[in-house]
């Protein structure tokens, strides 16, 4: 997935994170299907949090991922100063939430937060990365907005995940902890 050599990817992945990766990837798929974006939080020049909605996060091997840098001027500036980031994925499926509210608990995690850092400056996306994202949005490829948003996906940022944080929603998620 990444143009970086394994030695460049940072410390080894904690075992529990590796074990959670398959479920995390599934939740990210459901989150994109239900809300078409994720939220990436960075730190701005004043130390304040800055949140950017971005739909192009692709998770790869355990603890690694990329996102396309499109329309992300402030995000890019923040990451040039401070490589830390947090990515929030929420399964916003209406049926999932209605069933959960009816039952009084979530059958699976409704959201997850990835905490990590980017691994250097943007790089040119591989054909595989471009094709993988193109498949994700292929259902709307015939719409005018498709090309306006995703017609020129050229650069990605690699990131490493240091920890996965479940999002707790009180009694609704207590049994998942």
Number of domains: 1
Q: Please give the number of β-strands.
A: 8
Helix content: 25-40%
Secondary-structure content class: alpha+beta
C-alpha Rg (nearest Å): 17 Å
CATH C-level name: Mainly Beta
Unreliable residue stretches: 1-12
CATH superfamily: Electron Transport, Fmn-binding Protein, Chain A
Relative strand content:
25-35%
Rounded to the nearest angstrom, the distance between the terminal CA atoms is 31 Å
| CATH architectural category | Roll
Task: Tally the helices.
Answer: 5
Helix/strand order:
HEEEEHEHEEHHE
Describe the overall structure.
This protein has 177 residues and is α+β, with helices and mostly antiparallel strands. The chain has one domain: Electron Transport, Fmn-binding Protein, Chain A (Pnp Oxidase, Chain A, Roll). The chain contains 5 helices and 8 strands, in the order H-E-E-E-E-H-E-H-E-E-H-H-E. Strands 1, 2, 3, 4, 5, 6, 7 and 8 form an 8-stranded antiparallel sheet that branches. InterPro entries: Pyridox_Oxase_N, Split_barrel_FMN-bd.
């Amino acid at each position: 997935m990444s143009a970086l050599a394994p030695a460049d990817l940072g410390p080894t992945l904690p075992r529990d994170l590796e074990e959670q990766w398959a479920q995390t990837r599934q939740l990210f798929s459901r989150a994109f299907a239900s809300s078409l974006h994720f939220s990436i939080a960075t730190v701005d020049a004043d130390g304040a949090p800055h949140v950017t909605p971005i739909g192009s996060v692709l998770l790869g091997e355990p603890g690694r991922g990329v996102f396309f840098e499109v329309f992300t001027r402030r995000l890019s500036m923040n990451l040039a100063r401070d490589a830390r980031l947090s990515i929030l994925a929420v399964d916003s499926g209406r049926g999932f939430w209605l069933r959960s509210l009816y039952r009084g608990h979530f059958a699976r995690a409704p959201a997850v937060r990835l905490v990590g850092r980017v691994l250097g400056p943007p790089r040119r996306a591989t054909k595989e990365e471009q094709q993988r994202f193109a498949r994700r949005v292929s259902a709307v490829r015939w719409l005018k907005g498709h090309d306006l948003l995703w017609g020129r996906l050229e650069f990605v940022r690699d990131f490493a995940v240091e920890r996965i944080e479940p999002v707790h929603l009180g009694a609704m998620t207590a049994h998942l902890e």
